[in-house]
Amino acid sequence: ELRHRASPWQRNLGYPLAMLGLLVLTGISVLIVCFHVLELLLDDAAMPRGIQQDASLGQVSFSIFGSFGAALQVVLIFYLMVSSVVGFYSSPLFTRLLPERQDTPLTKIIGNCVSLLVLSSALPVFSRTLGITRFDLLGDFGRFNWLGNFYIVFLYNMGFAGLTTLCLVKRVSWAVQAELIRAFGEDG
Q1: Between the CA atoms of 156, 159, 164 and 169, what dihedral angle is there, to the nearest 10 degrees?
Q2: Using an 8 Å Cβ cutoff, are 130 and 37 in contact?
Q3: Which of 32, 38, 63, 142 would disulfide-bridge 50, Cβ 3.0–4.6 Å?
Q4: Count of H helices and E strands in the chain?
Q5: What phi, psi does 109 have (nearest 5°)?
């Protein structure tokens, strides 16, 4: 119903651009994680431990590409945050936790606050483990013992890259398949 009420500009330009943006961000995330996997295989310094050098904030760039890379990291972390929240509320186990307008009980509000707090607390470790950023938010996020275990970090990265690629291919191929069936179904 919402799609039918959208303007032609929204349907023909807005939705495809949003979908292209999501595909590009997902592709860049998977590409960065794949490069991080290669780094893990070749160099022990790629492990997501705390900052070893005594670098002051702002003096050393945490990205190879300088300011552009730092901005890309911020965009990717924001994308991962939003996709984590959307994925959390889309899972069958937590769809009942989704707040309803002017009809949300206090226990559901508290449950949402706890869930969002856990998701936001896990985001720095998540982005460091995937190799999206080396910045540890000046906290002790890099001091977890399991971040030094190669096998856990490697399998985590491989799982993210594999499952994200699988979801991306499945989503895109299903959309293309549905469009082809719709196009050929109308003509035949």
Answers
A1: 160
A2: no
A3: 142
A4: 6, 0
A5: -65, -45
